[in-house]
Task: structure prediction
Amino acid sequence: MSDRPVAFVTGASRGIGKACSVHLARAGFDVAVSARTVQDGEQREHSSTVQRSDTSPLPGSLSATAAMVTEAGGDALIVAADLLDFDSLEAAAATTLEHWGRVDVLVNNGRYIGPGHMDRLLDTPIELLDYHLKANCLAPLVLTKAFLPQMIERGGGTVVNITSASGFADPTEAAGDGGWGMGYGISKGAFHRVAGFLAVEHGKEGINTFNVQPGYISTERIAQDMAQFGFKDTGQPADVIGAVVAWLATDPEASELNGTNVEAQFFCHERGLLPGWKGPEPNTAAIRYDLSGAILAEKEAQLLAQASQE
Result:
């Protein structure tokens, strides 16, 4: 059993997952880093559309992230896994628990990378929609179920789900013209519901679960891949999300947010978690956010007010 707290981070080979791994290491955690790319230069399909293939290497790897974790003061364990291969996820979880005897923080950051992400419904095979749902929603649940029992047994733990406003917003344009594919949106919408359920089911057992909505973040993949779909590399630094996740994993006040959605850029700026960062930029896109819950809450409040006056 490790004397230090342990974090398990998916999608840790680059981008937000890499930043979370490093910030958790700085906060005193040992970190198990998980993704598919172990060494720099590995090739695999990462085109977002069925219309073409792209197997060019993306920057980043688990080996590189592990070195950064070590430099930041933590021990690193590389546990390669594929979100579409649930057996590999369970093996990665088992290896981590065998190695350190505990996992205190699970960061579900990884997501499906491949065709269908930027395709319209009629161009997207159902199989690819299934891949989105498996990787973006069910795979995190596989890992959550693997780690929850020992968290509960030890009296507490933290699950951080990196979500997306795409799960509660409509794109301004169709996929390919500046919007995103339905597979991404519906899978992130499903994933967005998880934190509330876990808070209700296990909050009294010391389990904190958060949605962390990153907003538009600059990552290596956006820089390399997404200009062709109308997305410019003008997002905020991934360190914003790393700083927020480290705070949620360590600050006692975090339990007050259990089961809620954390708008990471605003949260980071309001609390000064990343010194020198100027804060979020205004969003000028005419995105229509889903306000169904707020509308229903307002209607129900009106009914209660009327009933109290009768």
Summary: The longest strand covers residues 207-213.
